[in-house]
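Bumping with the actual sequence this time:
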Amino acid sequence: MLQVLREDIGVPEGIGASVNAIQTFGTWLDYHSHIHMVVAWGLFDARGNYTGASKIPAKVFEVVFSQKLFDTLILEGMISEELKAEMRQWHHSGFGVFVGELLPSNDTDALESVVGYIVKGPLSLNGLKLDGEFVELHGPKNKKHPKYPGGIRRWYVMDFLADLVMHIPDKDVKMTIYYGWYSNRSRGYRKQHPDEFVTKPVDGEVDSTVKSGAYWARYIEKVYECDPLECEHCGGKMREISRIFNVDVIFKILSHLGLLGKDWQSGADPP
């Protein structure tokens, strides 16, 4: 991706920016390893000046991607030049690249929708049904698969669990990676040395809950469509002053405010 953008724009030292999400599953929970990417369609220079790229056919990225992967496999001694030449003759190359429509940087709803899709879980609970000792996964109506008639895959319960846990990443394995201008290192450096860059944060650009570190409030608002930091009496904006982690203290506070369920109000010990 970076090589193609550099050649298109004509900036050999340009810095790319992308968020890459590794996924191991397909529509029917089968093993299908692939990468979803949200890419800034252009390059930054060392000072933060941005230059957009033209519309580039997906086939160009596919050719470059396959060549680089073959070169890496040969360098690591995993395949030979002869095997590479043979694989190049296959009718289906095994490589596929899809480039979606460009999204305006200020279209936050579209961007959040795309980002939510690339980091989605391996299956939707809405498509699952329990039928006695079987589990059924109903795929999208517009997708058919020769192995699963009617777009439905069935497992014995234990077989389903075995296929599901296969997609749980190992400990400390990152499935979402930030590259280039979006990387943690790059963002951290810009924060520490703001005067070195032409692009600087502007007050009001970032939601106050993000600036204060109250990410939990923003997530609750996204899911439940209500702001947990909005005062129910005056409608004003509350702020986080401390966090309590002691279970006994939390239980006493909730009990005093009458926010516990009936079982806990009866005097049961806190969980």
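The tokens above came from a reply further down the thread. The longest helix spans residues 58-75.
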